[in-house]
Each structure stands twice: as C-alpha cells, then as structure tokens.
Amino acid sequence: xxxxxxxxxxxxxxxxxxxxxxxxxxxxxxxxxxxxxxxxxxxxxxxxxxxxxxxxxxxxxxxxxxxxxxxxxxxxxxxxxxxxxxxxxxxxxxxxxxxxxxxxxxxxxxxxxxxxxxxxxxxxxxxxxxxxxxxxxxxxxxxxxxxxxxxxxxxxxxxxxxxxxxxxxxxxxxxxxxxxxxxxxxxxxxxxxxxxxxxxxxxxxxxxxxxxxxxxx
Length: 217
Known about the structure:
Elements: E1 11-13, H1 20-32, E2 43-45, E3 50-57, E4 60-68, E5 70-71, E6 79-80, E7 82-84, H2 92-95, H3 97-100, E8 102-107, E9 109-116, E10 119-127, E11 133-143, E12 149-159, E13 170-172, H4 178-185, H5 192-198, E14 206-214
C-alpha cells in the first residue's frame, strides 16, 4: 500500500515541546499505558502505527492508543484506513460504529501527494492558525492473526475545500470549533442529522507546503 494512492495516508504529530496540547495528550496516554511499555510515536504516523485518539462517554474523556487501519484479512498488508463520510450510514462496516464508536484523532498536519507528470509532489497540509487539530474517526476492536484483540481506527474523509482541491479532491474531516470536536467524540448520544452536518470540508484557511517531488516518498 502506498500512501499517495489513497486519501489521508499519513499524518504528523509535532515533537515534544512544540505544542502544549499535543504534549498533554501524549502525557495522558503515556501515563495510562506506562505498565505496557508502549511508546507514543511522534513525527510521521503511518498506517499500522499506534496513534493517539480521544473518545468520550458520559462527559469522561478517554485518551487511547489505537492502531491505524481496519484489517481486511485479504492479504498481509490489506488495510482500510479511510472511510467516506458521505456513505457511513450505508456501509455495514461503519453503520453501527457511527452510533457508539466515534473518536477524534489529534494531528499537527497531514500529507497528500499531487501527481506531477510521472512524479508526485508531496504536500504538508494543516489549518493555517493551528498546530493541533482533530480529525473525525471511527474505531472498532478486532481479533488479529495471533488471536489477540486489537482496537483500530479509520479517518473519515469528505470532499476537498477550495484550497485543498488544488492538490486532491478529498480531505480528512477536520473540526473547525472545539464544540464540534466534543459532539463527535461523545458516544453518550446519537443524532444522525447533527453528526452528518459535521462531515463537511474544512471551513478555515489551510497552509499547503510543497515538500519535494518523489515517486515513492
């Protein structure tokens, strides 16, 4: 699987000390998993990596470390890492998860690849005014190939906004306001129309930075 072949195939978390909100999330997760010898990765986050997510139930936030990508078991590297926001209610894989297993994924930026002839131009993309933002996600628990339970997440995508459309026709669902983040991750309630209204292109300005031209990066 190559990240440039699908929408939102890689995102990034700033290094320690660069953003206090990211630091606080990772401190919470590190404390929670301190007896399991799990390290929270910074920098570029790839499919199959463990990454921070936040869920909420009855006003209690839970800081979790979930694996990115739902296993499809059709092949060793077969993963489902994104979910189209427009069809969540129609897909068996996501329909029930939308009711009780919503999460948000903190990030500092995400990457996308724009075709440039035979090459691809790699872009680092983030909200212009934010070094920490939250993407909409869903999660579920699976039994892996070693018969062990593992909880995984996918990132929800939507149509690109005007800026993003110069690079790709889709983008992750990014919440513009804190209250939108709170609504999405609160699994104590389910209001399909309200949740659906949050699945839309990002409404504020983005920073799009071309990093390099590469076939495989």
